[in-house]
Amino acid sequence: MKAHILAVLLLAGPAMAQDNPLQDSATWDDLRESALGLASDVPQDLGVLDLEAPVRAHEAAIVPIRLTQPHGAPAITAATLVIDENPAPVAAEYSFGPAMMPLDFEFRVRVDSYSDVRAIADTGNGNRVMAGRFVKASGGCSAPAGKDMAAVEATMGQMRWRSAPEDGQQVGTLMIRHPNFSGLQRDQVTLLNIPAHFIDRLDVRQGEELLFALQAGISISEDPVFRFAYRPNGQPIRVHVEDTDGNVWDREFAAGG
């Protein structure tokens, strides 16, 4: 619980120090083409997209990441998050609706060893831009789960939503209870490996209008939290969640949370 509260405070806090730019990465040179099909590197442009992340993570299993755009930047329709040195480097693939522009989007990830964390974003017409930071963290993918298995079963799939004005924009926060087991963790009672079991699809809409959608791997944190600015249209917030065990959860929340 303390870790969860800390992570939410981190997400809600001021922008994090940005003296940790991307470093040269032989891993990325390989991943760029083999995993993403990119024949050449993607330019960085802070006028289009920035990625904020801590220089050194307080907890490697809940590293806060924030994607932001300045006003007037071209709209981002999709972004792929890559954590170069994670066992499964492609951490998440996001799609964004127009109500999320300009992007201000926060979430938490696991970082398994010192690594570049980068977002490759699509701005339309085949144009891409990259943003990222080098994060000092280790062991995030194998860190023990924060709850015992009984608590996991009792709370999995529960959701909370809140929405409030903040600094002249509407900010929504979606919290989902799920262990997001990576397959690299051990049960602290039996000492056996816990099979991978994580949210792999998430769809968030206001009415029929897409806010964001997610296809994820093992790197999204336990009990994920998503915090984002959006333009409300007055319609209820509809959340659809699927996990790798075939569980499906649907919730609808009043627009104001």
Automatic annotation (TrEMBL):
Domain Ig-like SoxY: 44-141
Every Sulphur oxidation protein SoxZ domain range: 173-252
Residues spanning the signal sequence: 1-17
SUPFAM superfamilies, per database record: E set domains
Gene3D superfamilies: Immunoglobulins, SoxY domain
Superkingdom of origin organism: Bacteria
Keywords: Signal
Pfam family, one: SoxY
Record's protein name: Quinoprotein dehydrogenase-associated SoxYZ-like carrier
Organism name: Paracoccus lichenicola
Taxonomic lineage: Bacteria, Pseudomonadati, Pseudomonadota, Alphaproteobacteria, Rhodobacterales
